[in-house]
Amino acid sequence: MTKRLWRKWASVLGLVITVLVSGMVLYSQAQGDPLLQGFRNPPDSAKPRVWWHWMSGNVTKEGIKADLAWMQRVGVGGFQNFDAGLNTPQIVDKRLVFMTPEWKDAFRYATTLADQLTLEMAIAGSPGWSESGGPWVTPEQAMKKYVWS
Questions:
Q1: pLDDT higher than 70, residue 62
Q2: Is the dihedral of CA 117, 119, 125, 129 positive or negative?
């Protein structure tokens, strides 16, 4: 083999080795970088939470299932449920009135499904917006504390 041919081979071999080693170094850095891994696959604690309004009783179990499945599919980590009434037009066959047995059944279904989908659930309790406070709530009936089990 001539010196000239040997130099070409050595040059090509050196380039191949450089590319391979560089690729391995970059790959190993990317695999070991917790910040990068956190962006690629965020922990549940870093996923966004959303507000989920049940407007004027326009709630169905089919709608609950579709909403929660979508939240999980797109990477939402959880939600805060608001039951609100703002003269929203009726779009379901039967509205679920707050705290009726049918509403409680739908709410229980939502909590069970959220748990199965590993979605964090919170409940809104804000005076003047939901049923937990406002001028219509007497001090005797006012919220004292939240308890959950």
A1: yes
A2: negative
Phi and psi torsions of 130, nearest 5°: -110, -165
62, 96 contact by CB (below 8 A): no
- Cα(95)–Cα(114) distance, rounded to whole angstroms? 22
Residues whose CB is less than 8 angstroms from the CB of residue 132 and which lie 6 or more positions away in sequence, other chains included? 125, 126, 143
Instruction: Say if residues 79 and 51 touch (Cβ distance below 8 Å).
Output: yes
The span from the CA of 35 to the CA of 46, in Å, is 12
CA distance 117 to 69: 8
Query: pTM surpassing 0.85?
Result: no
Per residue, what are the HEC states of 76-93? CCEEEEEEECCCCCCCCC
